[in-house]
Write a structure and sequence with these properties.
CATH class of the largest domain: Mainly Beta
Shape: elongated
Distance between the termini: 47 Å
Low-confidence stretches: none
CATH superfamily of the largest domain: AF2212/PG0164-like
Largest sheet: 7 strands, antiparallel
Strand content: 25-35%
Order of helices and strands: EEHEEEEHEHHHHH
Number of domains: 2
Strand order of the largest sheet: 4-3-7-1-2-6-5
Structural class: alpha+beta
Number of strands: 7
CATH topology of the largest domain: Elongation Factor Tu (Ef-tu), domain 3
């Protein structure tokens, strides 16, 4: 698996990080715009997934407020980042609970697989927001039921249909 060296970055704007071209280019050359990332600051380490965005001559990743808070950095701090090849199927780790529900509902799983990659990731991130296992299972079941009645709109997929 390809992995960059650790490199120093800081937040630009409210949530962007400029990735040095020499660190990002090997991944972009291989068609890996979605990557796994690790951020390091004062003995803390967090892992997350992201996309390398090429804008003009710069490569950027999004480093939202949630990650900033989790790592303990502000826009004036410098911290280290490391890029790795993303080996996940959906560009983010699938929560156990969602995976288990999809495995037990073949029709819903087939419909899930037909969604765009972005919709799949959005639903996975939605499930990941919940800390409670039972809530995750309940939300996964709701999504599966909504898929089976033909709903594909993200906002409607996460709502109880009446």
């Amino acid at each position: 698996m390809e992995r960059s060296t650790k490199f120093e970055v800081t937040i630009t704007g409210t949530h962007g990080v400029v990735v040095p071209t020499q660190e990002a280019q090997p991944f972009l050359d291989k068609g890996h715009s979605r990557v796994a990332l690790k951020a390091f600051f004062k003995g803390k380490e967090i892992s997350f997934h992201g996309k390398l965005h090429k804008r003009n001559e710069e490569v950027l990743i999004s480093f939202g407020k949630r990650y900033q808070k989790e790592l303990g950095v502000t826009t004036s701090d410098f911290f280290e980042l490391q890029i790795s090849e993303d080996t996940t199927e959906y560009g983010v780790e699938m929560p156990e609970e969602f995976s288990a529900v999809l495995e037990t509902d073949e029709k819903a799983f087939e419909l899930f697989k037909k969604l765009t990659n972005g919709k799949k990731r959005s639903l996975i991130y939605y499930i990941l927001r919940f800390k409670n296992t039972q809530t995750r299972v309940d939300r996964a079941l709701l999504i599966c039921e909504n898929l089976k009645i033909g709903i594909t709109d993200l906002k409607q997929l996460i709502k109880i249909q009446r």
